[in-house]
Amino acid sequence: MLEKIDLSKKMDKDTYKQVIGEQSERLGLLQRELRTAGIPVMIVFEGMGAAGKGTQINRLIQAMDPRGFEVFANSKATEEEQLRPFLWRFWTKTPADGRIAIFDRSWYRQVTIERFDGQIKEKNLPEAFQDILSFERQLDDGGMVIIKLFLYISQEEQKKRFKKLEDSKETSWRVTKDDWRRNKEYGRYLEINEEMLQKTDTERAPWSIIEATDKDYAAAKIMTLVADRFEAALREKAASKPEVSEKPPVKEERYQNGVLSGVDLTKTLTKEEYKKEIDRLQKRLEFLHSEIYRLRIPVVLGFEGWDAGGKGGAIKRLTSHLDPRGYRVNPTASPNDIEKVHHYLWRFWNNVPKAGHIAVFDRTWYGRVMVERIEGFCSEADWKRAYQEINEMEAHMANAGAVVIKFWLHIDKDEQERRFKERQQNPAKEWKITDEDWRNREKWDQYETAVNEMLVRTSTTYAPWVVVEGNCKYYARVKVLRTVVDALEERVKACGKK
Amino acid sequence: MLEKIDLSKKMDKDTYKQVIGEQSERLGLLQRELRTAGIPVMIVFEGMGAAGKGTQINRLIQAMDPRGFEVFANSKATEEEQLRPFLWRFWTKTPADGRIAIFDRSWYRQVTIERFDGQIKEKNLPEAFQDILSFERQLDDGGMVIIKLFLYISQEEQKKRFKKLEDSKETSWRVTKDDWRRNKEYGRYLEINEEMLQKTDTERAPWSIIEATDKDYAAAKIMTLVADRFEAALREKAASKPEVSEKPPVKEERYQNGVLSGVDLTKTLTKEEYKKEIDRLQKRLEFLHSEIYRLRIPVVLGFEGWDAGGKGGAIKRLTSHLDPRGYRVNPTASPNDIEKVHHYLWRFWNNVPKAGHIAVFDRTWYGRVMVERIEGFCSEADWKRAYQEINEMEAHMANAGAVVIKFWLHIDKDEQERRFKERQQNPAKEWKITDEDWRNREKWDQYETAVNEMLVRTSTTYAPWVVVEGNCKYYARVKVLRTVVDALEERVKACGKK
Q1: Over its length of 498 residues, how does chain A's per-residue pLDDT go in tens digits?
Q2: Which of A27, A222, A240, B191 has the least C-beta neighbours within 10 A?
């Protein structure tokens, strides 16, 4: 692939000045149009060491309005970042609609430099490539423009540049032993990069190889290419028909009598049984919490369920004996202004727990396939795609070592009515019940169908759904705690054996 | 101070249950009222090791709605945090209006644990206390409620708790050598804490000592105390008269013929002089940029000036040869929704540069004493207080080693008109000029008076204002670059000598 590239390409000063002049103006204009159209863009700079990534990024941003972009330099992951799944630091940096994020090195570090350095095991490579591909596909599906540039220079050119940097005492510190190693073993490093380029060159996020021997040639090519992609994105957006959001009621037959209809809601515990058991489980959980901290196991617990299904009470019993430094409850309301202009998974990525910490989500990313589906807040294509996206996100967390469990707190319609009325009569709980709750209740059947489909499509071995029989609060709370305790117990034991 | 505290206080189970029941309900209610009233709260937990901070925080948050608070555990600063002024990691965590931030250890670490451990020099203590006091004063003036709790146990009690933790193999790792050292030298550590309590016990942010031997007693006291402070804050807010924002035109005589009237706007450079000089300065700056990176010097450059005064052009020449990994341009527009519900300095604190990096601000925190003052976006008390607040912020940055320079790009009224008209006639620049620019122009005299006052009140040795004669763009750009180059040159030399 790369050996076919002509690295001798040059551009004379006059042509360069003319091209840059034209393209700068064009870029400035297009950047404003992208902002108006609300199209987000990510531009990735990868390539050989000393190929001039810094210089090229700087020339590109000179043409743009600094109110619209950010540059992220991605060296080795920091302590904080190492404690999270590897895509975390990139997901959290995905730009809002209408904004541009420029990455100096990116999520490709793992499958290039870190692979060369042996920091990632060969057996983990397929997974890493898979994660990268689904990351880019998900963003593209969400409307992101992804521009990937690979700056290429020859072994000799690189050697010359390293030497020049080393010759001056002010810049010699910039050339590291690792740089030299990649130059000495240029062939092997090139092979790794070629494989990366081939495996991740997709239709929607293609790689562009930039011949970077001549900086002016490279700059002109990059600017023209970026402007072309901006223009294409604007054209595509203008041509796309607005999604018709008709909200046909959810009533797919095969999911009408699904998992939920088989749940045995008569299960109960007496107060005495409850007290004894909850006390034992809380003590055990307190101990396990300290064990998972010691073993650096991240834990993700998602809570969904009917309104008044008992999520809050269950979460309270779960956390009441835990050290607050090691857990966080993330409540999920309607997205705020900032969240609305990001990918729908972005706000959840922001709250992915550190290794050794527990993240409890009170309502979750499953809103996409429930309320957003039923209320028509997203298109049919959006929520249908979401099952896979969610499975991929949870798989990524699980691959990073996380225990992932999702609870559906299930009650029947009569029990809900009873609880709603009780809340209305209790001044301390009155605020918990709104007109919206009553309105949602009218859509019970639609929700039931959607939940049945969700449970089937997103219950996986690495992130199972646990349906909790919730008519008896005592029973429900004990089941939640026991499920968590058992899962942590098992994981801690497994870690101990390694 | 502390020896007068009776550490034998206890509470029996029944009283505890009753108090907690009442206070929990009260807290839940008050939290919702605080949210409605838009009052932000910070609760600080400090005190002796093993005094039960974690347990107490957990009991407190069980009574609150997780949608309204966050808990921050503050151990040693991370790599990222160490590269910034020490208050950065707390400023960025100050809660939005109506929200609560709970700190498990806080900005007091520096003057307690780190002082005991010798990580901070005694000669830097007065500065550290000063920074803490102004941090809290500024937040209080901005409407923040600050609740500070000191959990106190005796040397014997602490020893007993450490031993108990050590006795179990699951918890023994929690007790460190440092913990034991602070127990062995309890007297010395206590003295340090007493000094801290005395120096930072202010009327608006007082310390409450919590006798923490008995956990139930402590929990009941904390909850009651927090609820009382919430209630007092609500009462105070209800009683405060809304600021009358009359916008009397700015025309303080003593600032009418100030600094700006003496600026010599006839200074010019020819195109040839400009080209030669700018080229030399850019090369020099490129070199210095790499030196400040090596020496870990942070640089803060603020740009203010008349509309069309040439800020954008000057910033472009300043950055065009720099490595984008080492600088960032932060444009300042009207605050967005998130910024509006924080202290006005919060968004600038978020962009404080890392050591070794340059942060350029295109418009700055000085908006408070210019546009906000003139348009009545803040009260008279607010902008009058701002001079000190800004000086304190810049002093904090300078104390952390930053080079801080502010530029005022000055042109006269005729030159502005000429540039406005030129922009209107140029399709590529038309978007830069809006009706608001013309409206601001009508207030030229008010702005001039405000700027004169600002220049006098906030030009300091550690963060000087540089007025740039801007009628000739060539002259202005060279002056900006030369000022930056000279300042960095001097600082790099000074660092080299150490």
Answers
A1: 788 899 999 999 999 999 999 999 999 999 999 999 999 999 999 999 999 999 999 999 999 988 899 999 988 888 889 999 999 999 999 999 999 999 999 999 999 999 999 999 999 999 999 999 999 999 999 999 999 999 999 999 999 999 999 998 878 888 999 999 999 999 999 999 999 999 999 999 999 999 999 999 999 999 999 999 999 999 999 998 766 556 667 777 778 788 999 999 999 999 999 999 999 999 999 999 999 999 999 999 999 999 999 999 999 999 999 999 999 999 999 998 899 999 999 999 999 999 999 999 999 999 999 999 999 999 999 999 999 999 999 999 999 999 999 999 999 999 999 999 999 998 878 888 889 999 999 999 999 999 999 999 999 999 999 999 999 999 999 999 999 999 999 999 998 776
A2: A240
CA dist., res. B448 & res. B306, Å (int): 9
Listed residue (B9, B54, B19) closest to B223, CA to CA: B19
Which residues in chain B are closer than 8 Å to A431, comparing Cβ atoms?
32
φ/ψ of residue B101, rounded to 5: -115, 130
Q: Phi then psi for B455, rounded to 5 degrees?
A: -60, -40
Q: Check for a shared fold between B2-238 and B253-497.
A: yes
The percent helix, strand, coil of chain B (3-state, each to 5) is 55, 10, 30
Interface residue of B325, B330, B430 to substitute, partner A, most A CBs within 10 Å: B325
Closest CA to A61 of B130, B52, B316: B316
- Sorted by where each begins, the domain ranges of chain A are 2-239, 253-497
- Give Dmax over CA atoms of chain A in angstroms: 88
How far is the first Cα of chain A from the last one, in angstroms, to the nearest whole number? 42
Residue A325: which of B80, B104, B431 has the nearest Cβ? Answer: B104
Those residues whose C-beta lies under 8 Å from the C-beta of residue B285, and which sit 6 or more positions away, are B318, B321, B322, B481, B484, B485, B488
A492 φ, ψ (degrees, to nearest 5) = -60, -40
Rounded distance, CA A183 to CA A444, Å? 64
Q: Please choose, from the candidates A283, A288, A296, A286, the residue with its C-alpha nearest in 3D space to the C-alpha of residue A357.
A: A296
* Residues B361 and B378: beta-carbon distance below 8 Å: no
* Residues A87 and A26: beta-carbon distance below 8 Å: no
Contacts of B291 in chain A (CB under 8 A): 170
Instruction: Give whole-number Cα distances, A348 to A91, A333, A362, A388, A395, in Å.
Output: 10, 12, 11, 16, 14
Helix or strand run (H / E) with residue B197 = helix B186-200
Domain B2-238 fold: Rossmann fold (3.40.50)
Select the residue from A23, A165, A285, A323 to test the B interface by mutation, using most B Cβ atoms within 10 A. Answer: A323
Q: What share of chain A is helix, strand, coil (3-state, %, to 5)?
A: 55, 10, 30
Euclidean distance between CA atoms B45 and B281, whole angstroms? 51
Residues contacting A240, CB < 8 A, separation 6+: none
Q: Do A62 and B319 touch (CB under 8 A)?
A: yes
Comparing CB atoms, the residue among B170, B322, B337 nearest residue A58 is B322
CA torsion sign, A2 to A8 to A9 to A11? Answer: positive
DSSP output for A10-60: ---HHHHHHHHHHHHHHHHHHHHHHHHHT--EEEEEEESTTS-HHHHHHHH
The torsion angles phi and psi of A463, rounded to 5 degrees, stand at -150, 75
CATH 3.40.50.300 fits B253-497, yes or no: yes
Cα gap B346→B38, rounded to integer Å: 17
- Cα of B339 to nearest chain A Cα, Å: 11
What is the torsion angle, in degrees rounded to the nearest 10, for the CA atoms of residue A11, residue A14, residue A17 and residue A22? -90
Tell the CATH topology of A2-239. Rossmann fold (3.40.50)
Classify residue B344 by its DSSP letter: T
